[in-house]
């Protein structure tokens, strides 16, 4: 643990994960309230904006996206360093099944920060509605289900959470960096957007693989989880996989296919 990337900062060392886990066990159902308020804002906000001119909000959007990008980058570096260390020193099974991610050095703070961040991340939709941009089902469905599942799982310190969170941190680090660049007016290659969607699809495949490993090793009494969590998590990842594949096809492939057919 002497490697620079694995050295604890004082705020990480002082973080009390027991209080955090206890708070989540007592309050995780609030995620349903936040989701309901979020859904009400979506439908109410779209109705109110129907007869109003759109807001620009470019500068606030740059700050918003940049803040989430920096948070995700740091989270990906810190949790990634921890997971790679466990993987290389103790093996794949330990990295998947060990609950140390929730209470170990470095990662314990970032695990809690991750699940809490799913509530403020709902603010992404605020900009879409006020700027009168297209709001797709995948966007708000993803936000709601990730919030519900993250808070539901953290309280039980579910196996596999270390990989779930690390992957999500990594994808969001790239995604929000892209959003920040676009909001700031930089021209970003379409291929970069395609790459982001491909990483999201890959994340869903890996999430299903981790769920399978948790299920297999849970039968041996080595992975702390339960069937309800595995079922809900698997359904969530599979639905994301289908929706992201559909989005990839409609956003990047369908127009090219139509052009190719016209050319023929």
TrEMBL record:
Q: Where in the cell is it found?
A: Endoplasmic reticulum membrane; Membrane
The alphabetical list of record keywords is:
Endoplasmic reticulum, Fatty acid biosynthesis, Fatty acid metabolism, Glycoprotein, Lipid biosynthesis, Lipid metabolism, Membrane, Transferase, Transmembrane, Transmembrane helix
Q: Give the EC number(s) under which this enzyme is classified.
A: 2.3.1.199
The UniProt entry's GO biological process terms, in alphabetical order, are:
fatty acid elongation, monounsaturated fatty acid; fatty acid elongation, polyunsaturated fatty acid; fatty acid elongation, saturated fatty acid; long-chain fatty-acyl-CoA biosynthetic process; sphingolipid biosynthetic process; unsaturated fatty acid biosynthetic process; very long-chain fatty acid biosynthetic process
Q: Give the catalysed reaction(s), semicolon-separated.
A: (9Z)-octadecenoyl-CoA + malonyl-CoA + H(+) = 3-oxo-(11Z)-eicosenoyl-CoA + CO2 + CoA; hexadecanoyl-CoA + malonyl-CoA + H(+) = 3-oxooctadecanoyl-CoA + CO2 + CoA; (9Z,12Z,15Z)-octadecatrienoyl-CoA + malonyl-CoA + H(+) = (11Z,14Z,17Z)-3-oxoeicosatrienoyl-CoA + CO2 + CoA; tetradecanoyl-CoA + malonyl-CoA + H(+) = 3-oxohexadecanoyl-CoA + CO2 + CoA
Residues crossing the lipid bilayer are 32-49, 61-85, 160-181, 193-215, 230-249
The job of this chain, per UniProt, is described as:
Catalyzes the first and rate-limiting reaction of the four reactions that constitute the long-chain fatty acids elongation cycle. This endoplasmic reticulum-bound enzymatic process allows the addition of 2 carbons to the chain of long- and very long-chain fatty acids (VLCFAs) per cycle. Condensing enzyme that elongates fatty acids with 12, 14 and 16 carbons with higher activity toward C16:0 acyl-CoAs. Catalyzes the synthesis of unsaturated C16 long chain fatty acids and, to a lesser extent, C18:0 and those with low desaturation degree.
HAMAP family recorded for this chain?
VLCF_elongase_6
Return the similarity comment: Belongs to the ELO family. ELOVL6 subfamily.
The protein here is known as Elongation of very long chain fatty acids protein 6
Q: Which organism is it from?
A: Scyliorhinus torazame
